[in-house]
Write a structure and sequence with these properties.
Blueprint lengths: L7 H4 L3 E6 L5 H15 L4 E7 L18 E2 L2 E2 L3 E3 L4 E3 L4 E2 L2 H9 L3 E4 L4 H16 L3 E7 L15 H11 L4 E6 L9 H13 L3 E6 L5 H8 L9 H6 L4 E5 L4 E5 L5 E6 H7 L1 H6 L5 H10 L5 H17 L5
Helix pairs in contact: 2-7, 4-5
Length: about 325
């Protein structure tokens, strides 16, 4: 008799925490995938978990907010957002994606800050295990930047993913990539080639497709968030095939039916192949993590945001001669 792997048993009766590992916008897809796992894979409990690094159109100050700037939330190793929670930067305030999800769920949403590096990330995960009896984590990355080497010319946000990957390597977890190339940073073909490389090392576990009967549900949920990458599976489910412009036309995304697929990968296999994640493992704060990336000559989202922020300030301060 042939033996086979039943993917349903991987999650069946488990209490799962799905982390939007790539940044704030990934929480929208984390919420959707929670429903998929509960509906089809016998998951007894699933909670979406945010990572607090918003896009600069929401928070123009470079870097994620520290806990001291978060208001109206319960602060512990993690931050627990309600619908009333916000970040106060002094000159402005904004409502993070985690707070928007709290409104949708009518419940608190746990979130991970990055100010204490990988060690702080792990402490938050330990707290979630204690508070929610989570026994399996899924690090969900929309687009697949988590597979990058770090030096790709088109790569824009390697640090958030690598911190999460390093932290999850110590827990019962998998990495899940939804809609390869959907954020416009890595080409779809490149992400798929990286998944194939992992398969050669037995690091590819399997895949899950988003079914068409989820279309209206996904569309309704994602429309409430400030995210472009999480909208790519929606247009793919509608049959769109071609190139989609995002980020105000700065990035191009190849969209096809592959954009509806969630690829599940072995965390430890991927971690061992990520030089950046390996170097971040012992970091205790964000500054240390940024320095580690700089030592590897890797440009991070912090560096890109800092350049944009300084250019914006310079333009506002500049007055042409009369």
């Amino acid at each position: 008799m042939l033996s086979y792997f039943n993917p349903a048993k991987m999650f069946e009766n488990h209490r799962v925490g799905i982390i939007g590992i790539g940044g704030a916008g990934d929480i929208a897809s984390a919420y959707v995938i929670c429903k998929v796992l509960k509906d089809f894979f016998g998951v007894s409990f699933c909670i979406p978990i945010a990572v607090l690094w918003e896009r600069s159109i929401i928070d123009p100050i470079a870097g994620p907010p520290p806990k001291s700037l978060i208001k109206g939330a319960k602060i512990s190793e993690c931050v627990y957002f309600s619908s009333e929670s916000y970040v106060d930067r002094g000159l402005y305030r904004y409502r993070p994606q985690a707070s928007i999800l709290a409104s949708i769920m009518n419940d608190v949403v746990p979130a991970i800050t990055l100010e204490y590096g990988v060690q702080g990330y792990r402490k938050c995960l330990d707290e979630l295990i204690s508070n929610y009896s989570v026994d399996c984590f899924v690090g969900l990355d929309v687009g697949g930047d988590i597979l990058a080497d770090g030096w790709e010319d088109c790569l824009g946000s390697p640090l958030t993913d690598a911190i999460g990957l390093a932290a999850l390597s110590s827990f019962n977890s998998v990495i899940a990539v939804l809609a390869p190339g959907a954020d416009g940073e890595l080409p779809q073909e490149y992400v798929l080639s990286k998944i194939s490389d992992l398969a050669k090392l037995n690091g590819y576990i399997g895949s899950i497709g988003l079914w068409s009967n989820y279309l209206s549900y996904i569309e309704d949920v994602v429309s409430k968030f400030e995210t472009e990458a999480s909208k790519i599976p929606i247009i793919a489910l509608k049959g769109f095939e071609g190139i989609k412009s995002i980020r105000g036309g700065l990035r191009k995304v190849k969209v096809n039916i592959v954009s509806t697929i969630l690829f599940i990968l072995n965390t430890k296999t991927l971690y061992r192949r990520s030089r950046l994640a390996l170097n971040l493992t012992s970091t205790k704060n964000l500054a240390e993590a940024i320095k580690k990336a700089e030592e590897l000559n890797i440009i991070t989202e912090f560096h890109s945001e800092l350049r944009r922020m300084m250019a914006s300030f310079a333009n506002k301060a500049y007055k042409p001669q009369q």
